[in-house]
Amino acid sequence: MRHLPYFCRGEVVRGFGRGSKQLGIPTANFPEHVVDNLPADVSTGIYYGWASVGDGDVHKMVVSIGWNPYYKNTKKSIETHIMHTFKEDFYGEILSVAIVGYLRPEKNFDSLESLISAIQGDIEEAKKQLDLPEHLKVKEDNFFQHPKSKIMNGH
């Protein structure tokens, strides 16, 4: 992705129900129109950055953009794992995301265990990267301070 950071927001919708149940790694999912509005130069893969729900605090996150080959998805998705424990689900809330870096391409896995292990490794690497000064400053971006409109893609 040439234009990082990349900012987008949209309503949290129900996904496939796999993040929490099968992986133990809950994700917040964007609706199709947010996915469809991604710039053409956004390659599939695993990225990291910052996210907030509604008017809440800004937290570290990892996000998968793509087809999730392990699950053989037929629709491209954006699935965000926010590194924070929420007390309850937040379907219908506005999720604001700032993508600041790329971790790896999307790939298939031989087992659920190897997928979970890779995601956990992605989370650990994202935590380290997001502590770098050039990424920390994005956490304070005005994007997270402004009143939340329903949809915004780009920057």
UniProtKB/TrEMBL annotation:
One Gene Ontology MF term: metal ion binding
Q: State which Enzyme Commission number(s) the record gives.
A: 2.7.1.26
A GO cellular component annotation in the UniProt record: mitochondrion
Name any cofactors this protein relies on: Zn(2+)
- Which leading EC class covers this enzyme? transferase
Record bears the keyword Flavoprotein: yes
Q: Which SUPFAM superfamilies match?
A: Riboflavin kinase-like
Catalysed transformations (reactions): riboflavin + ATP = FMN + ADP + H(+)
Which keywords has UniProt assigned to this entry? ATP-binding, Flavoprotein, FMN, Kinase, Metal-binding, Nucleotide-binding, Transferase, Zinc
| GO annotation terms (biological process) | FMN biosynthetic process; riboflavin biosynthetic process
Q: Does the keyword Cytoplasm apply?
A: no
The pathway this protein participates in, as annotated, is:
Cofactor biosynthesis; FMN biosynthesis; FMN from riboflavin (ATP route): step 1/1
Riboflavin kinase domain location is 1-131
Q: What does this protein do?
A: Catalyzes the phosphorylation of riboflavin (vitamin B2) to form flavin-mononucleotide (FMN), hence rate-limiting enzyme in the synthesis of FAD. Essential for TNF-induced reactive oxygen species (ROS) production. Through its interaction with both TNFRSF1A and CYBA, physically and functionally couples TNFRSF1A to NADPH oxidase. TNF-activation of RFK may enhance the incorporation of FAD in NADPH oxidase, a critical step for the assembly and activation of NADPH oxidase.
Which PANTHER family does the record associate with it? RIBOFLAVIN KINASE (PTHR22749:SF6), RIBOFLAVIN KINASE/FMN ADENYLYLTRANSFERASE (PTHR22749)
Could you tell me what this protein is called?
Riboflavin kinase
* Native species: Erinaceus europaeus (Western European hedgehog)
